[in-house]
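ok trying again, last paste got cut off:
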Amino acid sequence: IDPGQTWTAEFPVIQPAATFWYHPHLMGSSAEQVYMGAAGMIIVDDDNPLAADLPSSYGIDDIPVILQDREFTADDQLRFQIDDGGDGDQNPDLTVNGTLDPYTTVPAGPVRLRLLNGSQARIYELSVDNGPLVKIASDGGYLPAPVALESITLGPGDRAEIVVDTTDGPVALLDEDFGRVLELRADPDLPSAGSLPTELATIDAITADEIDRDRTFVMGRADGGWGINGKRMDMSRIDETITFGDTERWTITVRDGIHTFHPHQTQFRILSINGEPPPPEDAGWEDTVLVTEDREVVIAARFDSYTNPDVPYMFHCHVLDHEEMGMMGQFQILQE
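nice, full thing came through this time. structure:
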């Protein structure tokens, strides 16, 4: 999109309720544009009766929490750089919705936090200082039921929705590296309207007899940068071709580095992590998953929503340093 130009898209929303985000995807400039602030959250709602009692007053008891680490120059400007190391660029200052050291006032009771790791490369290990957190949704929408956790891990591009309880006073969201992320100050005069249901959604399983094809994706160093299956991104090359309507099983492994694997166009279910079924907090629909040399992940996805004979989709690492250095490929979904 050139300066002074406008781009408009129209499409039907066929996605159940979930928390998403948007950002530019210009080859060679995605990391810098996201880092400089060209990103935001998209919230999709629906009429799911199981989730009707969850906190849902935006900005009151339903709070967006966009995490981005940054580095500032002596004159308070953003300093951007790419780090070709295995962890990507890690910055010393944490912003939440673009704010340093934030707090917000909320009702005394259940509060919903929509978490987004919009960082260039950093992985967050989040907890709260006043009781457990309860995960209710992942990248693609609600889990089957709430899951109480001591902490939650978010890789770059990951989202999660959690509920915390401020009935007994203020609650702070914490990260193992940064300490306090966000303080929730309870105001008993604000009405508390939400509650935590015991069930949230019915999620269709993807069974073994549905699988039409298996593929393997190996993430690691390639040709002086980063690549997938030994190849760096080439916009003139289609890496994989998928038949419209097929269900596929993908095994994602890592040769070196720490990565998050993200395919466009689809949501997937995690079938296994290191050969074991995923825990309940990872049993929903996802579009981004953390993979390392010690964490092999097998996923399954249905490719039955969109097809385009001309424009390919992408799969890539959402550590944006790695994507910029070639860790991305293209796939097409074609009618048989």
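cool. Helices lie at 30-35, 320-324. The first strand starts at residue 18 and ends at 22.
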